[in-house]
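Data availability (excerpt). The following record was deposited with the supplementary files.
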Amino acid sequence: MPLPVNGLPKPAYGCLVVFTRQGGGHVGFVVGKDKAGNLLVLGGNQGNRVSIAAFPTSRVAAYVWPSVGGAPLDPTPERYNPAIGRCGNEQERGMKKGF
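Predicted structure:
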């Protein structure tokens, strides 16, 4: 699958991740990975609430980074080093430290 405009080849902390699913899709923000390698994603309507939930990378359709005036921006290199955590308060505290 070709990368979208401002698409990334791999996840970066804070990037928008687009998932496939039967009947539609889902989007959220990458905030880390769990020990199994699943993405930890901050999103809405995850268990009928805003939460951090784990999603397998096999469902990823795209990783997207913002642009300014149509000019692509690149995440800083340290954003590509995922924090290992788990869903819940421990991971939410880790978000404050970075990816």
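Summary of structural features: The longest strand covers residues 24-34.
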